[in-house]
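Issue: ligand-bound run for 3AM - logging full I/O for the record.

Environment: standard queue, default settings, no custom constraints.

Inputs:
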Amino acid sequence: MGCSPLGIFGRKNESHSEKSSEYIVNNTQSLKIDARLFINKRTGLLSQEYTIGPKIGAGSFGFVREATSINLKKKRAIKSIKKSEISQSLKERAEFVAEVNILIKTDHPNVVKLYEFYEDDRYYHLVTEFLTGGELLDFIIKRKWLCEPIAAHFMSQLLSGVAYCHSNNIVHRDLKPENLLLDKDTPEALLKIIDFGTSKIFDPTKRMTHKYGTVYYVAPEVLQGYYNEKCDIWSCGVILYLLLSGRPPFYAKSHEEILEKILKGHYSFEEPEWDEVSNDAKDLINQMLHRNYNFRISALDAQKHPWFLSQKCNGRRLSSQVRHKSALANLQNFRAECKFQQAVLTFIASQLLTKEESKRFIEAFKAIDTNGDGKLSKEELLQSYKNEINELSAIEEIEKIMKKADSNNSGYIDYTEFVIASAKSEMLLCNSNLEQAFKAFDTDGNGKISAEELKGILGNGLKANDEIWLKLIKEVDENGDGEIDIDEFKTMMMKLINQEI
Ligand code: 3AM
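Outputs:
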């Protein structure tokens, strides 16, 4: 069953220029570098940048195709929406714009990554990471239901993505196994939330009223037209019930009857599939399917439910501890103090890293992110370092790490910042990554990066003193011609590796 928006659309949203800043930046250290800088709106021809492959799927919005980036040689999924089909409807246009804006805001391993978006005469195209493992729905259908450790592995990833969205005031409103894609078709797969077409930036002091969702998964309060972000948790509860039993908790022959059952909130664990399921799992489902959303568990608290601890096998915990220790050591040694270096590393970490390469960072990141909100606070870093060094030295180290690694000055280490700071530079700075990154900064393709080109990328919408871009170039411009060539670019980046040794 497809997504059936249940009501009228209306939203107030930040625009792409949200990444601009109100204050005037007049020194390079105040520049905010983050992955969003590289998500560009492109106006050229998609076919000049991508070799377009077969259709992967279609929906009411348009279609999704497989593609390969000609420059980067990376596989992508491209969701295309025909303008003529949505131009009549302000609602659909707003939905599309909102999806782009929300994806630009997110930087989390369990939320699909947006690389860039295109607008041509006839289409809007969203270029996202390509996930080859299919939908969680197909994964369950093939296996009928999942054993508890596998269900817990998927549910903890889903809750981690949802907690991150909620802590950034994003509500998805159409969580269902069709919108959860896997990077491969195996029980260890990485799960990603897709389709933010019905999502919204919410105001925590207000309730939402527009009715969105899909019949089996929609929360009772959404049907009643007065709800908050906890509607996503209800959908997670339905998904967990489905994962463990192969059936939805609210089932009937017609949509009307299903909606009636949802409104009553009656479901049971009486079917034989539930005999072997632990009480912890049932307790978590009960807390996620609490009819009153004020008493429903939050995504942050759900991640700490004892069911997850009981399902983690020792081997997994051990390997993530080892990774997390080496990540902590690398964080201490991270030295990209020059903003240009930080920007190049951000481009490589957010646009070029493969899913396989990302995997070990995700485990380490989640091991340190103890409150599960998808970003690392000073307190969380302190907890981790306190296990390795004494508290006073840990406090000192963390101040240094925040100064160097928090490149967008948010007060937290975001996922991409963590990857950059905790990876060994050799891994990020291989020759092909450096050449791809150079091409991305050399926007006119003349073989040199000028101050104007740096401004175009790093200063997108920013009120900054023009001297800043010249200063960034000067720091690296060894032959003094006012521009950066590929050799100077590589020398700048290789300094990071030499510092580490
Ligand atoms: O049409 P089906 O259900 O087979 O799984 C998504 C769905 O497939 C797929 O495109 C269809 C319409 O949403 N899809 C969406 N985003 C994708 C991505 N990033 C994707 N498949 C792979 N990678």
